[in-house]
Specification:
Layout lengths: L1 E6 L7 H10 L8 H11 L6 E8 L2 E13 L2 E6 L11 E2 L5 H14 L3 E9 L4 H12 L3 E14 L4 H6 L3 H16 L2 E6 L5 H14 L10 H11 L3 E8 L2 E11 L2 E9 L8 H15 L5 E3 L14 E11 L4 H30 L3 H4 L2
Parallel strand pairs: 4-6, 11-12
Antiparallel strand pairs: 1-2, 2-3, 3-4, 3-5, 6-13, 7-12, 7-13, 8-9, 9-10, 10-11
C-alpha cells in the first residue's frame, strides 16, 4: 500500500521519517534533519510554500522530497528545497526504493498541485542512482524533462598522509606555507581550530568579524551561517579555522567534517592582511588536521571552478539539475517551448562558432 504525506517543517516529522533522514545524513550532511531545520528557520521561516513529501510503502518510509511549491498567475511550480547555500541536493531515499515507487511520489505531487507547470531539482550528482530515478519518474508522469549544468566541483580523494599530499602540491603552495608561516608566527600570528565547546561563540564572532571585512557581499540571510556553525558543533561536524594576528582575527574558514568527508564550506580573509597569505595557512592547517586526525577519505571544495582550487585538489566532477515541464499546463507548455528553442539556439551558436574556428585563416594569411 502506497501513501504520500506532506510536512511543512522538519519539526513535524514522526520518528520513522526522522530515521529515514538520519540514514540519508550518513552519506550527505545536506540530507539531514539538522540541515533542513537550519535552512527553513533561517531562510524560509513561516514559508507556506514548503512541502516535504514522504512516500510510505506498507507503512515504511522509502523516499522524501523536500520542496517548495510556488504559485503565480500562470500556475504552480515545484522546486527542490535548495538555494545558493546548497552544494548538493538529493532525494532522501531507502535502498528499497524502486523506480515505480519514485513515479508514485512524483504523480502524487503533480496531482496535489493541479495545474503544476514545472518541477526543478538542483544541484545534484548526475552519476547518482537517485538522479536517474528522479529523471525516469518525471518522464513516466508525463513531464518533458531536461538536464542542465549547474557548476563544477573540485575534490581530493585522500589516499596518503599529509606530508605525501603536500609533496604533490605545486611548489608555490609549499613555498608559501613555509615562508609565510614563519613570518606570520614571528609577527604574532597564530592559527586556531574551533570544534565547539567554550570557544564556539568566540570563534563564531571571529568568523563574522572577518567576513564583514572581506571582499564578499553581506549574507542575505544573516542567521543561516551562525545557525549552521552551531548546528555543526552540536553534531561534532564543525572544523572552524581562525587566523589571529596579535589578538585580531584576520581570516576564517568553515569546514564541515562528517561521514569520512571534509567539505570546505565558507572562507574569508581581511584583505588588509593579504600579504600574510592567511587563507593559504589556514587551508594547510585544516587540511593537515582532516587528513591526519579526522582520517577523511575525501576533501571537497563544493561549488565552482575557482582557479585557486586546482592548487589543492586533483579531481573535478560536475553538479547538474533537472527541469521538467508539464505540457498539459499552459504555463508548462510555454516553458517547454522556451526551453526547446533556447537549446536549439545554443546548439546552433556552438556549431557556427566551431565552423568559424575551423575556417579561420592563420594570422600570417590575415596579414596579407
Amino acid at each position: 500500500m502506497i501513501k504520500v504525506s506532506v510536512y511543512k517543517h522538519p519539526d513535524e516529522f514522526p520518528d520513522d521519517v526522522n530515521q529515514l533522514f538520519e540514514a540519508g545524513a550518513q552519506t550527505n550532511v545536506e540530507s539531514s534533519v539538522a540541515w533542513y531545520n537550519n535552512l527553513v528557520n533561517a531562510v524560509y521561516p513561516g514559508d507556506v510554500a514548503i512541502c516535504i513529501y514522504v512516500l510510505r510503502k506498507n507503512n515504511i518510509p522509502l523516499a522524501a522530497l523536500p520542496m517548495r511549491v510556488t504559485r503565480s498567475a500562470f500556475g504552480q511550480q515545484a522546486g527542490s528545497l535548495s538555494n545558493y547555500y546548497t552544494a548538493l541536493y538529493a532525494p532522501v531515499t531507502s535502498s528499497a526504493l524502486t523506480a515505480s515507487d519514485m513515479t508514485e511520489l512524483i504523480r502524487a505531487i503533480k496531482s496535489a498541485h493541479t495545474p503544476l507547470a514545472a518541477m526543478r531539482f538542483a544541484p545534484m550528482a548526475p552519476e547518482s542512482a537517485d538522479y536517474g530515478l528522479l529523471l525516469q519518474a518525471l518522464r513516466a508522469c508525463g513531464f518533458k524533462a531536461f538536464t542542465f549544468f549547474r557548476f563544477g566541483n573540485w575534490y581530493q580523494p585522500v589516499i596518503d598522509d599529509w606530508q605525501t599530499y603536500l609533496k604533490n602540491r605545486e611548489g608555490t603552495v609549499r613555498s608559501t606555507i613555509k615562508r609565510m608561516g614563519k613570518k606570520f608566527a614571528n609577527e604574532g600570528g597564530s592559527l586556531e581550530l574551533v570544534q565547539g565547546g567554550e570557544n564556539l561563540e568566540r570563534g563564531l564572532a571571529a568568523y563574522q568579524h572577518v567576513y564583514a571585512l572581506s571582499w564578499k557581499q553581506p549574507e542575505p540571510y544573516p542567521e543561516f551561517v551562525p545557525g549552521l556553525i552551531r548546528t555543526c558543533a552540536a553534531h561534532s561536524w564543525l572544523r572552524l579555522g581562525v587566523a589571529w594576528l596579535n589578538g585580531k582575527p584576520i581570516a576564517a574558514q568553515l569546514w564541515i567534517v562528517a561521514n569520512g568527508k571534509a567539505n570546505i564550506y565558507k572562507l574569508a580573509y581581511d584583505e588588509s592582511f593579504k600579504a600574510y597569505a592567511p587563507g593559504t595557512l589556514l587551508t594547510a592547517m585544516l587540511m593537515e588536521h582532516v587528513i591526519e586526525q579526522d582520517k577523511v577519505r575525501e576533501v571537497d571544495y563544493l561549488i565552482g571552478d575557482d582557479p585557486y582550487k586546482k592548487s589543492w585538489m586533483s579531481k573535478r566532477r560536475e553538479r547538474w539539475g533537472i527541469i521538467a515541464y508539464n505540457p498539459r499546463s499552459m504555463a508548462g507548455l510555454l516553458g517547454l517551448m522556451h526551453e526547446v528553442l533556447g537549446r536549439a539556439a545554443k546548439h546552433l551558436k556552438s556549431k557556427i562558432s566551431k565552423l568559424s574556428t575551423v575556417h579561420a585563416l592563420p594570422k600570417e594569411q590575415d596579414a596579407i
